Amino acid sequence: MAQDDVFKKVVAHCKEYGFVFPSSDIYDGLGAVYDYGQMGVELKNNIKTYWWQSMVLLHDNIVGIDSAIFMHPTIWKASGHVDAFNDPLIDNRDSKKRYRADVLIEEQIAKYDEKIEKEVAKAAKRFGESFDREMFCQTNPKVLAEKAKRDALHERFSVAMNNVDLEELRQIIVDEEIACPISGTRNWTEVRQFNLMFSTEMGSTADGAMKVYLRPETAQGIFVNYLNVQKTGRMRIPFGIAQIGKAFRNEIVARQFIFRMREFEQMEMQFFVQPGKEMEWFEHWKAFRLKWHKALGFGDAMYRYHDHEKLAHYANAATDIEFKMPFGFKEVEGIHSRTNFDLSQHEKYCGKNIKYFDPELNESYTPYVIETSIGVDRMFLSVMCAAYTEETVSNGETRVVLKLPAALAPVKLAVLPLVKKDGLPEKAREIMNELKFSFNCYYEEKDSIGKRYRRMDAIGTPYCVTVDHQTLEDNMVTLRDRDTMEQKRVAIADLREMLQDKVSITSVLKKLS
Q1: Measuring CA to CA, which residue among 410, 454, 494, 442 is closest to residue 20?
Q2: Average pLDDT of the chain to the nearest whole number
C-alpha cells in the first residue's frame, strides 16, 4: 500500500472510531485545529502519563509545575520571540497558496535522499545477501551524482538559513526548479518573515488594555519559575522541571493532519546544570529520550537522530528525534542545549538577581539548561501511524487492527457476553464492575461476537474476555489476544493479576530503569 494511502486511512480511522475530529465540525471546521474524541483523549492521556512518570517518577531530581498560558509580555521580548520568532514564507502567484520556504527546500533534499534509497533498494534486491551497501554507495555513479547534488543543496541551504538570507532562499527554490504542488508552476513571490505569535489584549478598558500573547511554548513558564521551584523544593543542581501544557502558533502553512497545528500541547523538561557540564548532560538526555521512544516497541528502524545545522539563537547544540511517518522521517522531539541564554535574558529584563547559589562551590552562577521538548500531538500521530495495520485473516477477510502498546491503549479490556440472555450480561457486568477499578474496561453486547472483536481490534483493545454459558458453571472466561487472536480459558479470579502488569504504564517504565 502506498504511504500516502496509509496516511489517508489513518486520518479517516481517527474520525470514524472517535480518536480525532475536526474542531467545530458542524460549522465545516477551523483550519489546523482539532478535537480529541472519546478514544483519542484516553490515548493522549496515556501518552502524557507515560512521559510524566518517566520524568517525575523515575528521577528524584525532577519535579513538575503547571504555569499559566498568559504571561507578562516582557517575557516574550526577553526570550526573543517578539523579534525573532518567524518563519520564512513564500507565495505562489498562480495557486495563491503560501508555503514555508525552508520546508520546500527540505522536501527537495528529501527527494534526493529518496532517489539514492531507490538505487540502493534495487541493488540490494539484485545482489541479495552479498550486497554491500557501503561499498555500493561509495562507487555507484548514479548514487554519487545524486549525493553530490544533495550535499551541495544542503550546504547552500544551511548557509542561507544561518545568515537569514531570504533572497538566497528564494534563489535556491528557483535554481532547484521547485514547483507549487497545487498549480505546478514556479511563479514565486519574494520570501518574507512572518511572526507566529497570537496576540490579544488584557484589561478592563480599551485605553488601559495591555497587549499580551498566547504562549508559543511552555518553556518560558519554567524559566521564570525556576528559582521559586529551587528554593521551595530545596533542589540542588543538577535538577529538572517538567511541564505539560498548551501552546499556540499562528502557523500559516498548517497541514498533515495533527502534525502541525495552531493549538497544540507540549511536554517539556528543562534540566538545570553547572556551566561546563552541559554537553555531558546533553548526551545523557539525548540517549534517554530515544530509549523512551523505543521502549514502546515499534522497532529501532522507525527512529533516527537529526542534528541541527542551523542552531537557534539560544543553543550551542541541538538534535531532533525523528519518527518514520507515512510522509517521511519527521521530528517528534527536540533535545537542545540552551546555554544560559534564557535565564540571563530574564535577569536582564526583570532587573532581579535570579542566579543559583551553589553550596558545594560556594559561588553563584547562572545555570545552563538542557531541554527535552516533545509535541503530544505529534507523538499521538506517530503512535497511530505505527499501530495502524491491515491483515488478512484465515477466512480471507481483512481486519483493521491498531497494534497500540497495551500501556497506551484507550481500553485495556473488553468484557463481552456471548448473547444478551440467560444471565450472561449480568455475569459480564459483574466482571466489569470488579475490574474497572484496576484499568479501563469496556462493555458491549450488541452484534455477533465476531463483529465486536473487530470493533475492539479497530480501537486497539489488547484483550477481550467472552462470557459464555460455561462461565456460569466454572467461573472461567475466554481471553482473546488482539495481536495473535489466540483464545484460552482462564479463571475470572486470575484476570486482574494476569493483565495488570501487561497493560499498565509501569510495564513500559521498567524498560527505562
Answers
A1: 410
A2: 92
